[in-house]
Amino acid sequence: MSFGVGIFIIGLIIQITAMNSWVHLMMGRFVAGLGIGNLSVGVPMFQSECSPREIRGAVVATYQLLITFGILVSNILNYGVRSIEDSDASWRIVIGLGIVFSLPLGIGILLVPESPRWLAAHNDWEGARTSMARLRGLKHDPKHPLVERDMKEMHNSLKTENRVGVGSWLECFTGTTADTPKVAYRTFLGIGIHFLQQVSTIPFFSSAVGYRHADLTVRSGLESTTSFTTAQLSSNRLVSKTRSKPSSFLAR
To answer: For the chain, what are the domain ranges?
Structure first.
């Protein structure tokens, strides 16, 4: 995950150094997006592999919760730099602070134990036990019943995965057997849900508006940022209502 944070920081630096070219800024967004994509997979996976089953769902849910909290913080920062909105510093500061916020993850992940499941998948069961004990606060008692229980659960899960084997990308559309129902349907349904999320303008609201909120307000002809926000929420509501009916139909 430190790799993902590093890519993200490089992307932010590219954006901060943009001068008069929107392509420069766009490429910075592209590179930062690669880092975010890496972390979007790695963080919840690491959380799920390291958390006790009693709180696993709640721990993984904090990933999305903190993303939402981060959007709130970014908008507060945007509001804080409104006094210098005519200066390039107004958006460079906001983007640059992303480096500060990402460092705790990039450095902190180096200080925590490796995922027990990853170690076990690579046949390092002793290392997996040690890591599991540390994550459970029992590093001096790796034979504790709690550790034994989690190790047994992980062993059974990996045994099942090994018995099933590794699938190919083609199986996302064809299935593993001829009697597997609606495989392509399920795949395209998942893709469609995320596609509709993107075209609902929510990403625009949480990122592009974050860069030049006041400037976009003026260019849109609205009198205040409150009016702009209201218009944006109204459009989101319209798209949400429009897509809800086909989504409900497809989910049947």
So the answer is: 1-112, 114-166
Q: What is the pLDDT of residues 88-112, one digit of tens each?
A: 888 888 889 999 999 999 999 898 8
Question: Is the per-residue pLDDT at 151 higher than 70?
Answer: yes
Please report how many Cα atoms fall inside a 13 Å half-sphere around the Cα of residue 27, on the Cβ side: 9
Buried b (16+ CB within 10 A) or exposed e, 120-129: beeeeeebbb
The CATH H-level (homologous superfamily) assignment of domain 1-112 is MFS general substrate transporter like domains (1.20.1250.20)
Categorize the per-residue pLDDT at 19 as very low, low, confident or very high, splitting at 50, 70 and 90: confident
pTM of the predicted structure, to 2 decimals? 0.70
